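Re: the request from the purification team.
They wanted to know what the chain is likely to look like in 3D before they choose a buffer screen. I agreed to run a prediction and write the result into the notebook, where they can find it.
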Amino acid sequence: MNLILLGPPGAGKGTQAKLLEERRGLKQLSTGDMLRAAIAEASALGREVEAIMARGDLVPDEIVVGIIGERIQAPDCARGFILDGFPRNVAQAQALDEMLDEHGLGLDAVIELGVDDQILISRIEKRASETVGGPRADDNVEALRKRLSVYTEQTAPVAEYYRDSGKLKTVDGMAPVDEVSRQIDLVLNKAA
């Protein structure tokens, strides 16, 4: 089973991906981890990625999709994979679909964790006020507002792209973790 988890920062995608790994034996794939692994391997592609990142540039979509294409062939992805944080825009979603098609694969589900931005902001404010020693540098309302803005502008259209293809299912990301997991399982059971 191959799936994408969508939702803004703080929606719980990482938490749900880890739970899906445990329950279903799927592999959570992080593009950041894959890029770092390519660099560590010092392959031709890894050296190219390292040079791009050293310049402070974003790694082009075709390279990221190519790395994902290689990674999904690994034995630990045999039962399926979870993409969390990718695709970030419609062009990446289209490139991902093309690459999966070339590999004879597809997406079984695209699950959006629906959340209320204002409640996310309130959660961050509460967590920041309760954190002993102060919050992390990026764990503040201003940083979250910026990340939410970027998500709304660039990534939210990905949900529409998958909605138009009939693959998108939305669950209540504001529910308790166990309830969100139950809703995701219902979606995946219907997709299986």
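For the purification team: Residues 2-191 form a domain with the Rossmann fold fold (CATH 3.40.50.300).
Please add any questions underneath this entry.
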